[in-house]
Amino acid sequence: MNIKVPAKPRIQPPPNSHAGVTVFPLESLTSPCGRVTLEPLEERHLRDLYAVAHPASWTGTNGNTHPYFAGFPYGPFAAYDDWVDFVRRTFFEAGDTIMFAVYTTRAPDGTTAIPRTLVGKVGLIATSVENQRTEVGHVWYDTRYRGTFVNKAAVAAVLAWCFEGLGFSRVEWKCHSANEGSRRAAESLGFVYEGTFRKHMVVRHGFKRTTIYLAMTDDDWPSVKGKLWGRLGVSDAVE
Known about the structure:
The protein is of the alpha+beta class.
């Protein structure tokens, strides 16, 4: 395209956490089942997250097929310092964003106790406070925990915080059209399909991603909460 995009002003020095930048309060969250906790992302979490998302078993060169970064316009990162710089510039400098490090004390079977372990991240992005809208995004977990209780528990905590704690009226979820797992996860949580945006964004190597839009509103939340709490094995009266 014959358009030049001006460079984004950068905070100097780059922040090492969300403190003083994000519109969100910096609060840790606990899932309704108690098996998952979320901490606002800080630089101290990044070494473990880098290790999770850069398995030695992946030897490919095309990021569009990476087990953690496929569908995202970034990653994998050749060096840890590149990852840190990316997180600082992309997440910590963004006032409309908060990322959480996701921990669990259970093995993938959901019952076996293990030492508290960092297993992934989940975030809220593209937030419009004046329109009471935010979006769950940049979600990934250790591949051993995909399809387990972790995503349900983590997102349940985030949704309760959004609707009941912060007063949002709409939470969105967007995913690559080829990422059927992400769409199934969103729909299983109660998000409603709203449309398909063709060639919505250029991801990498000129690849144009078609994006699936889903959302949940505060009108949906009471029914969704009851079902979701039940799937996590707790009463919807338990906070």
